[in-house]
Design a protein that fits this description.
The complex is a heterodimer of chains A (about 575) and B (about 140). Chain A is mainly alpha-helical. In chain A, about 65% of the residues lie in helices and about 0% in strands. Classes of the chains: A mainly alpha (about 575), B mainly alpha (about 140). Chains A and B meet through helix 8 and helix 10 of A and helix 1 and helix 4 of B. The complex binds copper (II) ion (CU).
Chain lengths: ~575, ~140
């Protein structure tokens, strides 16, 4: 079969990048690969701006006093950081960017089920992003990314003042919600309808199981966000009492509404990342994934359990003790499917032939960081310890371990894994490993220090921790850990800029990528790098995508090809 | 960008094998519509009845919601074709409704549970004084 290991084919024929040319051929494309690339560029741009906001926060906290940002600016800065990272980066990063590119190819399909809906959801993302820009231009907002009442309904008057950005930001999040719903819907239908003959549910790559579970949450949970934000807009614009106690509303009810979406949304962010890790661990260990069905079903279990635990964000909000106890108990049950995944990944590594390529280094970083992030969740899920730890840096550290350290690290692992497929070029492996190391150590320096800060009592969302505010003894402790946290964030930023550098360099000067540089068994490694416009000229053969015994390293093409005798006998 | 997408081409190639959705006659749709309108009138009529006279003060809401459920079922079954669709579509809507039920049940339970605290707070606040006073007064009330 010539589709294996024939690296000259990519340069001779046209591929999806050279198929048509010009701005409109991208802006109006229906090709899932181009839409995926546009998402990728857009999401990484948002990641840059949201990351710069984070750097401003860390810079302010390197020393006591308000030396760089005023208190108001600080509040706006962490709101921008949080809202951009959650709504523009984390939620679409893996499903919409990586998923769009990889999912149809993994299915051996020519595109997603609804290509026009796919393009529409991208432009909805852009519209949502523009609303966030509008929010900044119309006075900004300082509610935090959660838009908690009463912050989001206070203000000098209901339409203007410092809070003028609230309604545009709410509208932006509303629009982005629809973008997310359409992506999820598209993927559900694609997985149901466009699987090739022979690919049963339990022959799908685990990434697809993860994307499928994510898509269910996207479709089921995101409408609640829409309702919540719409109610908030109505309350703010017309003074109808829903959440504002002065008008007869109930602010705790807002938190119920908000977290009924936003806890499942945590799984929209992390589940696809876990799917990437399942692929990376198996491919780069050159070993069949361990416990396929357990990993597949644990994705679905997480999706379902994820709907029943939202109240763990409200333990100290005035929620009743009865509900606190129930939510705490159910929260612990979510750790079971997550732990199942971790144990299966470890079992896959065991006695594997591990290649420490850049994507694998990200996968191993994920295992380390996610385990810490998951375990510290237990401290916060326990009612007694949460009283002490809530709204401190311990919480900040916990969710950055899960969101930044796990979801984003997995996303960057996937980016490096599929970069040769996306661009047709190899990046500099040495620089890739160095950048991963910088990100890993920088990340842990930034956020492990924050666990200590939090357990010592440093509250989150404070612009200052000077001695007059915190007392001399606390000040010494807080200053020390804040200083090192900021240093860590600069190391991490250095890693990201290095990554940007070598990735951009590889697009122009990188070595031509072979079709299968890592030895992957799923279908995307059977088409050329970069793939042709319609992915596969003939439907590919479907086998066990985690069976690597057919593949061998070919020194000539610096990639893997299928053994001749195996290729002729087929599956 | 006028050419067809690969997926569409694929659809066209296999058009013969694709099942077409169930087609409902216009007459039937109008009949459903008429039933909905009649039920709407029934809702309005029921709202005029003063059930307090019969010692059933909450009956108005019960009747209105019951009629609304019937109407929503008509829409789902006939306008949205669930009656003829494969069962999976019905499962999906039932699961979605179950999650709505869970949300409302949990949130309402919580509201009833903390209502007593809230009312105590409101009572103290109504007696006057600034918000700091309220905090201390509440503490006094709570410590035996
Ligand atoms: Cu949560």
């Amino acid at each position: 079969m010539s589709i294996y290991g024939d690296s000259t084919k990519a340069s001779s024929g046209t591929n999806y990048l050279t198929h048509t040319r010009g701005f409109l051929s991208w802006a109006l494309t229906l090709d899932h690969k181009r839409i995926g690339v546009m998402y990728l560029v857009s999401v990484l741009t948002a990641f840059f701006f949201a990351g710069m906001a984070a750097m401003a926060l860390r810079l302010e906290l390197i020393a006591p006093g308000e030396w760089f940002l005023s208190q108001d600016n600080y509040n706006q800065m962490f709101t921008v950081h949080g809202a951009l990272m959650v709504f523009l980066v984390l939620i679409p990063a893996v499903p919409a960017a990586m998923g769009n590119f990889v999912l149809p190819i993994m299915l051996g399909a020519k595109d997603v089920a609804f290509p026009r809906l796919n393009l529409f959801s991208y432009w909805l993302w852009v519209t949502g992003a523009l609303f966030f820009v509008l929010a900044l231009l119309t006075g900004g907002l300082d509610t935090g990314w959660t838009f908690y009442t009463p912050y989001s309904i206070e203000g000098d008057d209901h339409m203007s003042g410092a809070m003028g950005g609230v309604i545009p930001a709410l509208t932006g999040a509303f629009v982005l919600g629809f973008s997310s719903i359409f992506t999820g819907l598209n993927f559900i239908v694609t997985i149901h309808r466009l699987r090739p003959p022979g690919m049963t549910w339990f022959r799908m790559p685990l990434f697809l199981w993860a994307i499928y579970a994510t898509a269910i949450i996207q479709v089921m949970a995101t409408p609640i966000l829409g309702i919540t934000l719409a109610l908030l807009i109505v309350e703010r614009a017309f003074g109808i009492g829903i959440f504002n106690p002065a008008l007869g509303g109930d602010p705790v009810l807002y938190q119920h509404f908000f977290w009924f979406y936003s806890h499942p949304a945590v799984y929209i962010m992390i589940l696809p990342g876990m799917g990437i890790i399942s692929e990376l661990i198996s491919v780069h260990s050159h070993k069949h994934i361990f416990g396929y069905r357990f990993i597949a079903f644990s994705s679905v279990a997480i999706a379902i359990f994820g709907f029943l635990v939202w109240g763990h964000h409200m333990f100290t909000s005035g929620q009743s003790p009865l509900m606190n106890i129930m939510f705490s108990a159910i929260t612990f049950s979510v750790s079971i499917p997550s732990a199942i995944k971790v144990f299966n990944w470890l079992a896959t590594l065991y006695k594997g032939s591990i290649s420490l390529n850049t994507p694998m280094l990200y996968a191993l970083s994920f295992l380390f960081i996610f385990t810490i992030g998951g375990l510290t969740g237990l401290h916060l899920g326990t009612l007694a310890t949460d009283i002490h730890l809530h709204d401190t840096y311990f919480v900040v550290a916990h969710f950055h371990y899960v969101m930044m350290g796990s979801a984003m690290i997995a996303m960057f692992g996937g980016l490096h894994h599929w970069w040769p497929k996306i661009t047709g070029r190899m990046y500099n492996e040495t620089l890739g490993r160095i950048a991963c190391g910088l990100v890993f150590f920088g990340f842990n320096a930034t956020f492990f220090t924050q666990f200590i800060l939090g357990s010592k009592g440093m509250p989150r969302r404070y612009a200052d921790y000077s001695a007059e505010l915190m007392g001399a003894e606390n000040f010494e402790i807080f200053h020390f850990w804040h200083f090192w946290s900021t240093i860590g964030s600069f190391v991490m930023a250095l890693g990201f800029f290095l990554m940007l550098g070598y990735l951009v360099h590889s697009m122009f000067k990188g070595r031509q990528a072979p079709d299968n540089p890592w030895g992957g068994g799923s279908l995307e490694w059977q088409c050329s790098s970069p793939p042709p416009h319609d992915n596969f000229s003939e439907p590919p053969t479907v086998g066990d995508c985690y069976d690597y015994s057919m593949l061998e390293w070919d020194e000539k093409i610096q990639g893997y090809h299928r053994r001749e005798e195996a290729a002729t006998s087929g599956e | 960008m006028t050419d067809r997408t690969p997926a569409e081409t694929e659809h066209a190639e296999h058009a013969g094998h694709h099942e077409v959705g169930h087609i409902v006659s216009v007459k039937f749709l109008f009949a459903t519509c008429a039933a909905l309108l009649v039920l709407t009138m029934l809702t309005v009529a029921a709202a005029q009845v003063d059930f307090t006279k019969y010692g059933l003060p909450e009956m108005n809401i019960v009747v209105a919601l019951a009629i609304a459920v019937v109407k929503a079922s008509l829409v789902c079954l006939f306008f949205m074709h669930l009656f003829w669709d494969r069962p999976i579509n019905a499962y999906i809507i039932i699961v979605a409704l179950a999650f709505v039920g869970i949300f409302i049940a949990f949130a309402m339970t919580d509201t009833f549970e903390y209502r007593a605290d809230q009312q105590q707070y409101e009572r103290v606040e109504l007696k006057g004084g600034d918000s700091k006073d309220v905090q201390t007064k509440l503490l006094e009330l709570q410590t035996p």
